[in-house]
Write a structure and sequence with these properties.
Blueprint: H1 2-45
Length: about 45
Amino acid sequence: QILALFQQALDQLVDNREREGDQLDQFIRQRLDTVAEITAAVRQQLP
């Protein structure tokens, strides 16, 4: 029973890390999109 509880805790930890990773991925991609938009706007203003 202890091993089953330990495995359950590990499974939950892995699930949490995967969700955190997905959220971080989304956050980084949004920031990169913003940087790309700003870069494009600046390039349009260059002579």
